Amino acid sequence: MAAVLESLLREEVSVAAAVRWIARSAQSSEDDPGEAAALSSLRPLRKEFVPFLLNFLREQSSRVLPQGPPTPAKAPGSSAALPGRPGGPPRGGRGARSQLFPPTELSSAAAAEAPSARRGGRRRGPGPGRERGGRGPGGLEEGVGGESQPWTGGRRSRGAGSPGSPSLVRSDPPNLSNLEEFPPVGSVPPGPAGTKPSRRINPTPVSEERSLSKPKTCFTSPPINCVPSSQPSVLDTSPWGHGLPPGCRSLQEEREMLRKERSKQLQQSPSTTCPTSELGPPLPSWSGNLTAESADPARVSSRQRLELIALVYSSCIAENLVPNLFLELFFVLQLLTARRMVATKDGDLEPSPGAPDSLESPLFQSVHDCVFFAVQVLERQFQVLSYLDKGTLKLLAENERLLCFSPALQGRLRAAYEGSVAKVSLAMPPSAQAVSFQPETDNRANFSSDRAFHTFKKQRDVFFEVLREWEDRHEEPGWDFEKGLGSRIRAMMGQLSAACSHSHFVRLFQKQLLQMCQSPGGTGGTVLGEAPDVLSMLGADKLGRLRRLQERLVAPQSSGGPCPPPTFPGCQGFFRDFILSASSFQFNQHLMDSLSLKIRELNSLALPQPEPSDEDGESDVDWQGERRQFAMVLLSLRLLAKFLGFVAFLPYRGPEPPPTRELQDSILALRSQVPPALDVRALLQQGLRARRAVLTVPWLVEFLSLADHIVPLLDYYRSIFSVLLHLHRSLVLSKESEGEMCFLNKLLLLAVLGWLFQIPTVPEDLFFLEEGQLDALEVDTVASELGLDGMPVVDQHLLYTCCPYIGELRKLLASWVSGSSARSGGFVRKITPTTTTGLGAQPPRTSQGLQAQLAQAFFHNQPPSLRRTVEFVAERIGSNCVKHIKATLVADLVRQAESLLQEQLVTQGQDGGDPAQLLEILCSQLCPHGAQALTQGREFCQKKSPGAVRALLPEETPAAVLSSAENIAVGLATEKACTWLSANITALIRREVKAAVSRTLRAQGPEAAARGERRGCSRACEHHAPLPSHLISEIKDVLSLAVGPRDPEEGVSLDHLEQLLGQLGQTLQCRQFLCPPAEQHLAKCSVDLASLLVADHIPVLGPPSPRGLERGQARRLLHVLLSLWKDDFQVPVPLQLLLSPRNVGLLADTRPREWDLLLFLLRELVEKGLMGRTEIEACLGSLRDAQWPKDFSEELATLFRLFLAEPHMPEPQLRACELVQTNRGTVLAQS
Amino acid sequence: MILTKAQYDEIAQCLVSVPPTRQSLRKLKQRFPSQSQATLLSIFSQEYQKHIKRTHAKHHTSEAIESYYQRYLNGVGRNGAAPVLLELANEVDYAPSLMARIILERFLQEHEETPPSKSVINSMLRDPSQIPDGVLANQVYQCIVNDCCYGPLVDCIKHAIGHEHEVLLRDMLLEKNLSFLDEDQLRAKGYDKTPDFILQVPVVMLCPLAVEGHIIHWIESKASFGDECSHHAYLHDQFWSYWNRFGPGLVIYWYGFIQELDCNRERGILLKACFPTDIVTLCHSVA
After folding, report:
1. What is the DSSP letter of A1126?
2. Which residue stretches does the UniProt record annotate as biased composition, category Polar residues (chain A) (predicted)?
3. Each residue of A395-451: pLDDT tens digit?
4. Which residues are CB-contacts of A5 (< 8 A; sequence separation ≥ 6)?
């Protein structure tokens, strides 16, 4: 490898040829024969070049970037102290220098001894950096960060343990055998800026949200080919882990270089594991010396060499030969912002005059070199830079080093910054509302039984209760999801017995997931940098948000470096933990089914069609809508796919890959016969064919990011990775031609793919080794010239939303500016893409016959809004048509059914016979009428659709277009309605008739009589009558006074009694507030009151003391009651209670007993027709059966005879009775 | 009448071990003349119910029942016209209507071959004339008309009050031209949980001190005072369930509530003691 670089440096080979050579396996005709010859000898190394180059650059920069840029989260101090710090900032790593990297000192030494070891070996030696951190409590992560991790590449672990990312190791016990942390006494403690050559610093996410990942095990590129592997790696023969090409092993240059490196390191450090510098100058204290060296273009050493390598490097980036574009940019920006060079040997600081252009001398000899190199690369990446957010552009444009080294680039960046306009914003709906109840899907008819319905009712409530509790408490320290909610969730899931209940619950779960997590705000994490988030937080007053804000301020670093592992930020964490805690096989299966269906549905959704770009104003408005729709669909898909991946691979996820080859083989054999949860390969191929990669790939990446270690080894998924690699390579940003993908679309795909290639479960060497199998990908994109890919559907906001890690670039630059949190808010992130590609023809996507094709063709040349309008109208009218039929035809049939049923009941008696049989008879008569539904439905659609289309289309729509649109809408609506009706009308009629039958039969029941017909208020009524509740309460008070016990001075005034009865009359006339139970109680109370009046039991207030009522007064009140009973009560009044033994018995207590009022009352009841004589006679008869005192019985018998003796009760006789009022003897004598 | 927790506690403190009679109510009104009668009655009733729930079990042991029954028999043996049952209830600090039920049940057990069914007992309590023993009938009736917290009459009054306030609320909604679905309509459509009203078009209620208003999708009318105990029960059984299905909404406690309970506004459950006046409808006009 070095040979290639050398020959480049010696100008034996041109950069262009070299890049061509790297990019393509075959030689190109453009190649100079001499160059070709020079390169062909190195052919076996071709694949190795890029990883070599990347590692070489990292290697070379090691003295500049040992600890990366200072970030506020990073505590200054010696590295030795850092690893053990228990409370280190959780994300405090310097977030950068990622992973790339060469072997440790130890391993390089070992490598020198065993150079033939397989490249990319995964066994790591007992080197430093065993510590692993970042194990969050979240489910996925469990076990991931275990103590023994034989599978993990040494490179990774080293990264995790390097002092540059202290946070990683915070929770692990100190490792006393670690010389790095506990150096031998007497040695100089290695400063973080020290000579420790480990440069693989992984920004380590240490938070519960970043579960799933191994702590910082993302990789960037394989190490140079000398990582030792004493044990054979299981991957050695796997298709993804080829051994090193044989030519490489014998390469003398490589060995030479390694030896030099090693000796250099050995000189620097007394022991292999404790690379402190004895010979070098005292280490600059990192904490004490934050100021950066100034960089001077004039002091750059070996310009030519740097230029050349920058060119090669840039070309590799441009050709997408590097796995992750943004990671390289990050690295370059690190070089740009390097603070100072760590001096090693004096000699190193001087360019070696003898071999200025060879690899013998360090590439970066000073900060000036680094900055020079960085600027060189940045100049060539301007196009990408210009698409970054405004904040990053501003920071770049204001970077004094950049200005100093390349005023031209600075000028272009400034122009890009000034020209960037915020135009498109994603107006996401507010999240966190509950999924609403929809009768169509949620009411009783959708459940198999009442029990299932009510169970689900409860489950919905439990689910939201759990969700609310999570919202309130998940940020509390010490709160644990499983402990807090686990048992409740499992209890709830346990009730979901029927499959139908599972599907209901899954629907609820999925809807809520989409509702809460789809919008970036719902993810809870910083998506676009601090500023907007902080603002939105300040606007809110929720305690939790304030707490989050506080955390953010204390630990500003948030996003976990340029390659964070997959996480479930914010609300997503709830859903993940819910799935884990539920641990229900049925639930997971239903969830996967449902997610797959929704993914398919959204993935195939017809999204924006090409719009003629010349109608600027209007189309711009439309485009905002299109973009928003695209963004919504894309974000939903990503979310769903992530959860699908999570659930689908959950059973297979383990902390580590299988430890032995045999085990892996057997697992592979097993797994290869399991069909995928969703045929993502087919969807990917369809997506590529339809040129919808920009929609399909981002969600596929989310799905794959949650795969387990075995997945990439399975044939099925291997072929997917193969396609993705090919796609990645093909997305050359500089190619901008007709039919090419839009720039930001490409950038999005590059970003997500680059990220995927860093996921721990994706084999690290996959990117560089997978080649030559591209035939697997026979994607025929010729068929469609222009799908979504060619349309500017991705805007900057969406890019940053999907790939928040791009924001790390800005953070890096910002930390350079201030060394602390000088982030000024207000980044404007939205730039309207300037690319609008030409629009081609869209072939018909379906083949539903000629008409459908014609309709498609018709829409082709119309604005997309027309199509949407027509489809929308058709959809709505079709749906309304069904409702219309239900309200008219079906309702008529139900009425017929009711009258038929009434007839039936009349002829067959009250009973009517067996309800089921009745229903059958009715249905057989009525269902044939359902056939009319189709005719009526057609008429309805015919009538309603055109008007709706006309109202929704612009007025200038040409008449012909309008009428075609109307006809298509009519056709589509009719088709929709008739399809539904013909399939369902009979069932619908049946259901409605059944409901009517049970209603009618119920109405025959005993309660029906009580309901009866009721009168309402009179028209003039203003509803000012006293409230029934008040009256009952008042009457109750009178009754309680009358029944006692009472204080001597207590009583009722006559006025009050009269007033009360007056109010009762008003209340009974105004029916506004009266409900039957209240009226029934009023009736009963009024009867009780009458009985008390008759028995003279009501204590009337008045001078001198409470006494009985006068007869006349009592009779007047009874008159009022009689007329209320007769005219105003609409419920039956229990008048027979007047003659109940208890009420009549009240008379027994009074002495002398006065019977005249009772007799009066009885006569009046008969007179007014309130009670029949016979009824009264029956009551009196039964009274005699009761046990009374002897004298009372006698008097009662007399009353009875008296009442019977007067068959017809004319008025005068009443008077006669009155005349004898007080004299019992007289009354009795008369009889 | 919105009370602070402290104000509420002061009232509740006065209600400890007060029998549920009209005399007690009269005294309570004199003690807190500034509070509305309805609010006081509602608080009294709820506090008393809490008290009864706590002590219910001890009155239902077979020993207790036997001893009450014997005391009753002895009492009416001496004088059937005296308020034996009512005084017994007051003496042992139990609700008169519930004491009547205990004695009635015991009486029927003794006099009927089969143990009395619940519906028979309820029916006799509603209409004591059906009680075969005249003396007991009078005693039971006396207990019922003198009990202001339990019994069929009180139940009816509470039900009527609830109904009346729903009607009132409906009138207000109609008056404001807010279209809604009521409980019956919702039930007919098959909703599993039914607030009193769902607004077909949500409104925003403005609050004097808050910048933002509160969205209201549904309204529930509660003709009682919102104390901690009942509010939490309602939250669990009703309000959160409504929120889970229909989003944020409004609860009107017509007889007031404890101010501190109105803490879920941000979450979407808003408490008021009357119909809100400052409502904004979708067309941005102040209703």
Report:
1. I
2. 265-276
3. 888 888 888 888 888 888 888 888 776 443 444 444 456 777 877 778 777 887 888
4. A52, A53, A56, A309, A312, A359
Buried b (16+ CB within 10 A) or exposed e, A978-1013: bebbeeebbebbbebbbebbeebbeeeeeeeeeeee
CA-based nearest residue to A772, from A731, A717, A722: A722
Distance, in angstroms, between A1098 CA and closest chain B CA? 14
Residue B287 lies in a domain: no
Q: How far apart are CA B136 and CA B129, in angstroms?
A: 10
**What is the band of A205 on the pLDDT scale with cuts at 50, 70, 90?**
very low
- Between the alpha carbon of residue B120 and those of residues B66, B127, B138, the distances in Å are 21, 10, 17
CA dihedral A784, A788, A790, A793 (to 10 degrees): 170
A1's tokens: 């490898």
Determine how many CB atoms are found less than 10 A away from the CB of residue B54: 9
Per-residue model confidence (pLDDT) at position A11: 66
Residues B49 and B8 in one domain: yes
Residue-wise pLDDT for A465-491, tens only, equals: 999 889 888 888 888 898 889 999 998
Yes or no, beta carbons of B245 and A1040 under 8 Å apart: no
CA distance B125 to chain A (A): 13
Helix (H, G, I), strand (E, B) or coil at A804: helix
Using a CB-CB cut-off of 8 Å, the residues of chain A touching B248 are 433
Rounded to 5 degrees, what are φ and ψ at A686? -60, -45
The residue from B150, B179, B209 where one domain ends is B150
Can you tell me the ipTM of this complex? 0.92
Q: How many domains does chain B have?
A: 3
Q: Give the span between the Cα atoms of B105 and B120, in whole angstroms.
A: 10
Q: Is B87 part of any domain?
A: yes
For residue B271, the enclosing domain spans: 158-281
Those residues with Cβ within 8 angstroms of residue A1112's Cβ, 6 or more apart along the chain or in another chain: none
Q: Would you say A372 and A405 are in contact if contact means Cβ atoms under 8 Å apart?
A: yes
What domains are defined for chain A? 1-70+294-342+361-419 (1.25.40), 437-528+563-604 (no CATH), 532-557 (no CATH), 657-821 (no CATH), 853-1003 (no CATH), 1028-1205 (no CATH)
Tens-digit pLDDT profile for residues A992-1049: 888 777 777 766 654 444 444 455 677 777 888 889 999 999 999 999 988 878 887 8
- Searching chain A, which residue's CA lies closest to the CA of residue B238? A461
Residue A166: name the closest of A65, A89, A274, A69 by CA. Answer: A89
* Candidates B81, B145, B192; nearest CB to A1040: B145
For residue A209, the 8-state DSSP code is: T
> CB distance A1081–B153 less than 8 Å?
yes
List the one residue out of A746, A824, A833, A823 whose CA is nearest residue A797.
A833
Q: pLDDT grade, residue A789 (50/70/90)?
A: confident
Radius of gyration of chain B (CA): 23
Judge whether B286 lies within some domain. Answer: no
Cα–Cα distance for residue pair B251/B273, rounded to 1 Å: 8
Please report residues of B whose CB lies closer than 8 A to that of A1186: 134
Q: Which residues contact A978 (CB under 8 A, 6 or more apart)?
A: A934, A937, A938
- Which letter does DSSP use for residue B2 in this model? E
> Using the beta-carbon criterion (under 8 Å), do A460 and B146 form an inter-chain contact?
no
Task: Collect all residues of chain B within an 8 Å Cβ-Cβ radius of residue A1149.
Answer: 81
pLDDT digits (tens, 9 = 90+) for A834-855: 333 333 333 333 334 556 666 7
Taking CB atoms and an 8 Å cutoff, what residues of chain A touch B190? 439, 442-445
A316, A365, A702, A959 from A375: Cα distances, Å: 16, 16, 34, 60
Please indicate whether, in this complex, the C-beta atoms of B192 and A442 are within 8 angstroms of each other.
yes
